[in-house]
Description:
Blueprint lengths: L36 E10 L7 E12 L8 E13 L4 E17 L2 E15 L11 E2 L2 E2 L13 E15 L7 E9 L5 E2 L7 E2 L3 E11 L4 E12 L2 E15 L6 E10 L3 E10 L2 E10 L4 H4 L2 E12 L15
Antiparallel strand pairs: 1-2, 1-18, 2-3, 3-4, 4-5, 5-8, 6-7, 8-9, 9-12, 10-11, 12-13, 13-14, 14-15, 15-16, 16-17, 17-18
Amino acid sequence: MCFCRLALSAQDVHFSQFHHAPLSLNPALVGAFDEDQRFGATYRNQWFSVPVPYETFFGAYSQKVFQPWLGDNWLGLGGAFAYDQAGDAALSWLQLALHGAFNWRAADEHILSAGLQLRFGQRALEPGQFNFADQFSDNVFDPGTPTAESFSSTASGFFSLGAGINWFYQPEGTRSRAWAGLGAVHLNQPTLSFFNDGSVGLPVLFNLHTLGFLELTERWDLAFNLLGQRQGTYQEIIGMAGGRFHLSQEKGRELALQLGIGYRLSDAVVGYLDVYYKNWRLGLSYDVNTSPFTAATNRNGGPELSVQYVISHVKPPAEFKACPIF
């Protein structure tokens, strides 16, 4: 760790079901949806076949805010929480974010939005879980032997800024929807270090995304999601496609199933199942590792579970007409 720390570059969390965690992609997506409020959570257990798996939890809330002075436009407000833990020393990654966006109805079916993000975070570890060379005596390891290794700090905090833009296609009379945008996090490039030297920086994270679904028939939709991420020297490209079948479209009893497959370039094949029931959206996916890391994972990427709950408010009529009672 001491020899490599100058070359280390921290990375943010990632998900296979990124379409169910929009606030992890772009602050401009807050408020860019059909409903008025949205709650969401995602849990990921990555590489559970290795000795210490990587666990990630993400939770978010977003809502629309309408004001008379905004006209047909609206504001989006939200917050997100992310926690990631990995390794023998329980290296953790805690992040809290506040999101705000302005959604402008450029045309009847087209909404353009711009968003900002304030993010607070902390990285921490438990060095007591490490084993060091000076704890060996006569080729025998003794965990009770004191070590001369020490850390100036076991936690490091940061504050970062993010921004993004998005286009939302929302035609009337059809289930088709589309989103496309670009988000950037850590624009101020904060630094992290357990040695109080500020040597490990957080490069800007760019997210370029396209999300959507296309109504094909009365009961069938085509879903498509594409994400490209780049942070420093690291990059990730993942594409997902699937078919959604509406078993019931009766108001108050809506039920749809979506089955699909995706591929994370040079890393894993992803299969997923989504269930849409009333205001609930449940997603389950599994990664099958295809990279050289299969030597450690035995092709076990890991499961991911997501859940969303949306709320739609009854809109008042555009015109109010009083009916006299005789």
